[in-house]
Sequence to fold (273 residues):
Amino acid sequence: MINKNAPVGVFDSGVGGLTVMREIMRQTPNEKIIYFGDTARVPYGSKSRDTVTKYSRQIVRFLQSKEVKAIVVACNTASAYALEEIEKETDIPIIGVVKPGAKVAAAATVNGRVGVIGTEGTISSGIYSEYIKKINPKASVIGKACPLFVPLVEEGLWQDPVTDDIAGRYLEELIDTGIDTLILGCTHYPLIRSTVGRLMGEEVTLVNPAYETARELKELLQEKNMLSDAGAKLGEERYRFYVSDAAEKFKRFANSIIKYGILSAKIVNIEEY
Fold:
């Protein structure tokens, strides 16, 4: 029997998944969370399906060693490439970030034209298109890979002329397609949401899968009677952070996203799992 006061595991290729964790913290404040960022092997977006699946399996095994009650794959590429495989291999609930975002985008679009920006892996997988067309077969989904957004965000250049310039180049062709809804199909992208929104214009609705994923997690935990009713006890760490490299850099970045005062991020040799 799963302990409902056990932590939720969240993982990403690096720091982008912290946008998902932030939403989980807001929407389910009693939950304890263990976060793993694969900072040694970021980015996932340019890697093969087999490699991303291998990495995801290792991280799931690590999180299971911490006795988590559910896992959130807070990475679009891992959700696209590995989620189906790792779901089959574990008996605890696992959710990704793609389905919740696709569901909201399919409901939000008025003219049936939806844009998706993401890593090369997410876009080439066609997974957003697949899910959206299941809900709305007449929808037209236009994907655009934006590979430089992840390193720009990881360097903290959220509101910088270089990010404006790159975003302008990437989004130019999407602006002319007549989309009325745009999915931020990478968990790093909410950090440059204001730039993307300004360039796309007010008539385009931006969908943030991080928010929708946190909402879906809450619904799942309620449905399975697994919502924590206790929170952390005195002396316990409510939020614990692990990385595969560069702990200090991660900690600085995490503190700029999660206004919580992150005391430490421990390095794990993830290859051992």
About this structure: The CA atoms of residues 33 and 239 lie 5 Å apart. The chain is about 45% helix and 15% strand. The two ends are 24 Å apart (CA to CA).
